[in-house]
């Protein structure tokens, strides 16, 4: 068990200059996007009614945490490769997958908090909802991680088992969010309704990326390519797989955190009724 | 296709100490300008009426993103050259053109948002206008990038095709902005009218720099110089071309983002009617 988990970080296939730079650049762009979203969310609190400001503060915290982790992920990417003979060879140090899980452990529960906060449900309902969602989110991430770090192609079925277990709280969360958002629509002002429908779709689409990426990264071929034991042909497939996985995660994170945060702001703005000094005194 | 795109970053001609430092210094000055503009725009929100503060916040976000990217561009410049025998030789690592495109992907749509926000058009009109502008901006940047990364002199006609395709949304945006700004003049207070006419001109002049720089950087001679396959004479032209391109982009970015942001502030100030605590409560 310990041996299996000893690869906290993935070993990586060789990449072309194009493949290496594509991932490097999307990581930098993600740092910029998360940082910009954090500045926007912190400062735009002054532009909504006071009761919606905690939702924007939490949204800002989420993208700040993500900004830090993408900065660290990018450094880990640099450390994992060296330019040799016109191509990038790995591994120098191994690329650290844990940053992404650390980010999810901290930010996924906070994403639930920002959504529930902007809905402004009755207190008892909000507490019950949040308790269930946060426990499910923790279980989802904790169960996914042991599978993610399995790099031995012979153990891919174990990866499937952890992925399957992690999917139970995953689908539970999606079900709860979808039904609660749908139920809450009637009690929301018309201007916010359309935005909440968009938020519901953003959650469904961006969250779908994570299990798909997990599945694609866990086929025996992909694992063999990561382990460097695959032949040349599947090695190229493996390299493209790694590049697609990293870019896919980055785009999903930008949408699910920065894009979702801006949606939370727009919902808060649509629900804000005060104007003049009261709303802008902060 | 993939081979053509494999140079996500340009290879660069040798530069004199003067040429290298000229670019290095303008990058540093751009970081300072963008950072200073960000501080001004964030804090000057308190000096305008509440309804204009989101426009200033978005303007501040734009220059913050540009500040980050020029910091990264300057580091990439340092990595791309080494001082050898009294001159700067490239490439060490290749200079990364993508930072500039990442910056544009994020900031050009936000520039549209800050302009529409300060005009305070009716909501339905603002939404329709922004949707068209943001889609066109994304198409413009996405179509320009495949051409920008072509470094093979034999493929310069492909560069022309991408540039031509990118020009369609570019001219569409300029046309929409020009006509909408012109139409909006009558509904704006007299004090803001003159400033909006200046904003119209700033957009027209600074935006013209980008296609001109793209065209100058894409002649067969310029590409040959970048690829290091040109003879000495066109090599000097190529080096001057690279220096001119980088300085031109930097000056255009400072004007189109920091200068434009200050214009947005002046327009907001001219349109602000409240005085005393009501306007200054923040």
Q: Strand count, sense and closure of the main sheet of chain A?
A: 3 strands, antiparallel
Q: Tell me the number of structural domains of chain A.
A: 1
Largest interface: A-B, 27 and 33 residues
Order of strands side by side in the largest beta sheet of chain A?
1-3-2
Q: What low-confidence regions of chain A span 5 or more consecutive residues with pLDDT below 50?
A: 1-9, 230-236, 276-282
> How much is the average pLDDT of chain A?
84
CA gyration radius of chain A, whole angstroms: 20 Å
CATH superfamily of chain A: Rhodopsin 7-helix transmembrane proteins
Which CATH architecture of chain A would you pick? Up-down Bundle
What labels would you give this structure?
3 strands; 282 residues; 3% strand; disordered N terminus; mainly alpha; three-stranded antiparallel beta sheet; homodimer; Rhopdopsin 7-helix transmembrane proteins; globular; 10 helices
Description:
- The structure is a homodimer of 282-residue chains.
- With 282 residues, chain A is an all-alpha fold.
- The first copy, chain A, has a single domain (2-277), classed as Rhodopsin 7-helix transmembrane proteins (Rhopdopsin 7-helix transmembrane proteins, Up-down Bundle), CATH 1.20.1070.
- Chain A is 77% helix and 3% strand.
- Chain A has ten helices and three strands, in the order αβααββααααααα.
- The first copy, chain A, has helices at 2-5, 17-44, 53-80, 98-119, 123-148, 156-184, 190-216, 220-227, 232-271, 277-280, and strands spanning 15-16, 82-84, 87-89.
- A three-stranded antiparallel β-sheet of chain A has the order 1-3-2.
- In chain A, a hairpin with a 2-residue loop joins β2 (82-84) and β3 (87-89).
- In chain A, α7 (190-216) packs antiparallel against α9.
- The longest helix of chain A has 40 residues, at 232-271.
- The relative contact order of chain A is 0.16.
- Mean pLDDT of chain A is 84; it is low at 1-9, 230-236 and 276-282.
- Chains A and B meet through α2 and α10 of A and α3 and α4 of B.
